[in-house]
Design a protein that fits this description.
Keywords: Flavoprotein, FMN. The protein is an alpha+beta fold. It is built from five helices and 14 strands.
């Protein structure tokens, strides 16, 4: 076994190690809106559900050269956002939104995505996603290390949108959703083989 101490690695080296080891990771495709009304969209793979009651999810958003990314800043200013599930049909468009644009320009417009009115929050959702979670900001934490910082966002899910073709008996048909996960580097993964295991009594 090889022992690797993160405090002896650069930020880039730590990122490459962790993202290649912890995989697959779900991808949160997040829309947020600035105080000036610019609709932002960006993907984040440091993301997961953290609780069913209350219904909470988390997103880690690393700062760039000490500055908050548009998504984090918008969420903190407006207090709302929408998380879309990334799937085989929208993953290429999701990837395109990771481009570096000035904060006064919209990735949604640039990529040609289709905004639609959300049911509960004021931030628009995107029609290209079959599963969406409308969220309000529950908690914000900042983690600082060396010359870097991360905004840790906890969102409360206030509305779930699921395409009718995917929803049956209270669950989302994962096989029909065809979610896409992030691996290390530029690699992604589709769902693959599905199997079941009985839990012990």
């Amino acid at each position: 076994m090889t022992n690797i101490h993160p405090n002896q690695l650069s930020k880039k080296e730590t990122y490459r190690l962790l993202t290649s080891a912890v995989a697959p990771r779900p991808i949160a495709f997040v829309t947020s809106i600035s105080e000036d009304g610019v609709l932002n969209a960006a993907p984040f793979s440091y993301f997961n559900l953290i609780s069913a009651e209350p219904p909470l999810l988390s997103i880690s958003i690393g700062r760039k050269q000490g500055h908050q990314k548009d998504t984090a800043r918008n969420i903190l200013q407006v207090g709302e956002f929408v998380v879309h599930v990334t799937d085989e049909d929208n993953v290429k468009a999701v990837n395109e939104t990771s481009m570096n644009l000035p904060s006064d320009q919209s990735e949604v417009e640039k990529v040609g995505l289709s905004p639609t009115v959300s049911d509960v929050v004021g931030v628009p959702s995107l029609k290209e996603s079959k599963v969406r979670f409308e969220c309000t900001l529950e908690k914000h934490l900042v983690f600082e290390e060396r010359d870097s910082a991360t905004d840790f966002i906890i969102g409360r899910i206030v509305n779930c949108y699921v395409d009718d073709n995917l929803y049956k008996d209270g669950v989302v048909r994962t096989d029909k959703l065809k979610p896409v996960a992030r691996l290390g580097g530029k690699e992604y993964a589709s769902l693959g083989k599905i199997f079941e295991l009985e839990r012990p009594e």
